[in-house]
Design goal:
The protein has 695 residues and is of the alpha+beta class. The protein is 36% helix and 19% strand. The protein has a six-stranded mixed β-sheet with strand order 2-12-11-3-9-10, sandwiched between helices. The chain has a five-stranded antiparallel β-sheet with strand order 15-14-13-16-17. The N and C termini lie far apart (103 Å).
Length: 695
């Protein structure tokens, strides 16, 4: 057999095997057999580069060549979706659609994958371009990275021209495996977005992205009659279709028949079953292997879609049902770049003021440049803003592009605080100048914060005062500071100075795990510090010794510590600046050895998960209350989730209470909590204090 014929034969066979494995979920050969065929193809292509085909499976391993992402004009409308937040609203939309169409319609219900929207363009059956959504008219060409996704066909069985739209995502399980490698990336969607825009496709190939295709746009005269036929034809072409499809028609029997005839997995329902179906989907959401943030309802009949048409922003024939409560919409009037205590750069959207979750929001995080690129966000865009739990609001998506021609915002290359050139690490930019004014303020403010060393009177404004008056330049300076030099400074009285002194003195009593968490080491927050201490690192000297020896295993033998986290901790503790800081704090008298307390408490909170909000008379800082929970067998968390069982509520609690009530979490007051602890006397003492204050 000639070399060309053998290459063609290998490609055809490997394409067949890949479809069986990645799309049909039914492997036909062992991994060893597949690898042998693949390696043979690689060898032949290396020996005969002139015979390499554009649809070769070897293209999926990616290239080490750096690429840019040129802008490409879409040939199909790539718009957002109108939104609804209740089943009743979706049903109302369906009824109005039927009335508008003057006839019976059927509707498809599909999962709204929380990923990256992508359009694949095929010419004569070959993948020609993969383009991001962009502004709906122009997107970025990311073909080389999308070719690394095994479920994306590089060649179709028919030599046709077609555009298909889908959602690129990263499965939850794969994100969990990769978290240690990408510690600064918060969720699967962000990692997927960053991977799609990797400069080297060989790096994109290391992340196991996947895709579901949900729309096909055919040449004139070739379009199917309805959406179900559309999906059926796409499946036959080798595209991966989400099996969690539901068809709503006049009767369950009719809908099920249509799905079966089309060869599609899914459920057939009548219209009156929509509410029940959406409830079921919401319940199973957590068990899915990928993230979804809603459902999409579409008119099936293509002729009706054509008649309905589009607005400038969304098709009139589809609507998204969102799981979250209604989000605020507002306009981005600017972007501010902030510098954190570690030098990490965070872009923040400046917004036209809007009400959200009972408060007025004027700012929202944009996370990093990759996130901005994913949104393709520009100043002047209209955006949706979300607020989950007590975290800072975030821009979720662009609803409408600006009309003034602004392009996607780009973070300037210099630090806004000190002017240093920014450096990229992972998904984020960093200022590497340790003397950067914003970093100094951030480090010290973090150390003194309520959830750290709890120097109550020394908040961010007080820290700024101390730094501006050249009394403090680093954390240890707090313990040698001559606060009396503030006498005569405007706005600073004798009482304030005494409060500063008292706060510093009291902080010397904080236990080692609190001191450790307050140093600002990567991966070592309050929980991380406790994990390290319980794992055997009950003194700073043990941590420093393991770090000096580069003893990764000493960290990773602790079940909750991965290799990437261990490396970050070791690198931080090898830093001469950090070592000097620790030595000075030792000399100041801080606790650097954990003193073990005997725990004879009854485990009354076993199997319970507690969260806390507000301030308390008997627990200052409030973390002390969570210590009581943990001593009695419970677990504490920082935010409300479906697994949270109890919320301890103090004075001035935020939105956590509303979220807890929505999820059916047990609400516990401070008085009730003290009774659970068997500390009724503390209640009486608190009431007595209040009475004395009144008189």
């Amino acid at each position: 057999m000639e070399v060309k014929e053998r290459i063609d034969s290998l490609i055809d066979e490997l394409v067949r095997l890949q479809k069986a494995y990645y799309i049909d979920g039914a492997p036909l050969v062992s991994d060893l057999e597949y690898d042998a065929l693949f390696d043979e193809l690689v060898k032949l292509e290396n020996e005969h580069p002139e015979l390499v085909r554009s649809d070769s499976p070897t293209k999926r391993v990616g290239s080490d060549l750096t690429s840019d992402f040129p802008e490409v004009e879409h040939t199909i409308p790539v718009l957002s979706l109108d939104k609804a937040y209740t089943a009743e609203a979706v049903l109302d939309w369906m009824s109005k659609s039927e009335a508008k169409a003057s006839g019976n319609l059927s509707f498809a219900e599909e999962e709204k994958i929380d990923g990256i929207s992508m359009v694949l363009y095929y010419e004569d059956g070959y993948l020609a371009r993969a383009v991001t959504r962009g502004n709906g008219h122009v997107g970025n060409d990311v073909t080389s990275n999308i070719m690394t996704i095994h479920s994306v066909p590089l060649r179709l069985p028919e030599a046709i021209n077609i555009a298909v739209r889908g959602e690129v995502y990263l499965p939850k399980a794969d994100f969990e495996k990769l978290k240690d490698r990408y510690p600064l990336i918060a969720n699967p969607r962000n990692l997927a977005a960053g991977t799609v825009r990797r400069q080297k496709s060989s790096e994109a190939a290391e992340v196991p992205l996947d895709i579901f295709i949900y729309e096909g746009f055919w040449e004139e005269g070739a379009a199917p009659a309805d959406h179900i036929e559309n999906l059926s034809r796409l499946k036959k072409l080798g595209f991966r279709i989400n099996p969690h499809l539901a068809l709503f028609s006049a009767s369950r029997e009719e809908a099920q028949r249509r799905l079966e005839e089309a060869g599609l997995e899914g459920e057939g329902h009548s219209f009156n079953e929509l509410g029940e179906y959406l409830e079921k989907v919401t319940e199973r959401r957590e068990s899915l292997p990928y993230e979804i943030d809603g459902m999409v309802t579409k008119v099936c009949e293509m002729s009706v879609r054509e008649a309905f048409g589009y607005t400038e922003h969304h098709p009139r024939w589809a609507i998204a049902y969102k799981f979250e409560s209604p989000q605020a919409q507002t306009k981005v009037v600017g972007v501010t770049v902030q510098v954190g205590r570690t030098g990490r750069i965070t872009p923040v959207a400046e917004l036209e003021a809007v009400k959200l979750g009972g408060s007025t929001v004027r700012r929202a995080t944009l996370h990093n440049q990759e996130y901005i690129d994913t949104l393709e966000l520009s100043i002047g865009d209209t955006v949706s803003v979300v607020k989950r739990g007590d975290v800072i609001p975030a821009v979720e998506e662009v609803i409408e592009k600006n009309e003034i021609g602004n392009g996607t915002f780009v973070i300037p290359p210099l630090c806004p605080s000190c002017g240093s050139v920014l450096e990229k690490k992972g998904a984020h930019l960093f200022c590497e100048n340790r003397s950067c004014p914003d970093q100094i303020l951030g480090r010290i403010s973090f150390f003194t914060a309520r959830d750290q060393m709890d120097m109550e009177s020394i908040g961010p404004k007080a820290v700024q005062l101390l730094v501006e008056n050249k009394l403090v330049e680093d954390i240890p300076d707090l313990y040698t500071c001559d606060f009396d030099r503030l006498v005569g400074v405007k706005g600073v009285g004798d009482k304030t100075i005494e409060q500063f002194k008292s706060a510093v003195k009291e902080s010397l009593n904080r236990p080692f795990h609190t001191v450790l968490a307050s140093l600002g080491l990567p991966e070592v927050g309050s929980k991380g510090a406790e994990i390290l201490v319980k794992g055997g690192f009950d003194s700073i000297d043990k941590l420093l010794d393991a770090s000096r020896r580069n003893d990764i295993e000493a960290f990773t033998r602790i079940p909750q510590v991965g290799e990437q986290s261990a490396l970050l901790i070791i690198n931080a503790l090898q830093d001469p600046v950090m070592i000097e800081r620790i030595e000075k704090l030792k000399a100041a008298g801080l606790q650097f050895v954990e003193i073990k307390e005997e725990n004879n408490e009854e485990q009354i909170f076993s199997d319970q998960v507690w969260c806390v909000t507000g301030s308390f008379d008997n627990f200052n800082p409030r973390g002390l209350a969570m210590k009581e929970v943990e001593k009695r067998g419970g677990r504490s968390v920082s935010s409300i989730t479906g697994k949270t069982t109890h919320l301890l509520v103090g004075k001035g609690g935020g939105s956590k209470r509303a979220q807890a009530e929505k999820l059916g979490v047990t609400i516990v007051t401070e008085e009730e909590f003290l009774k659970l602890l068997g500390k009724e006397n503390d209640i009486k003492e608190t009431k007595m204090d209040i009475q004395l204050e009144l008189f």
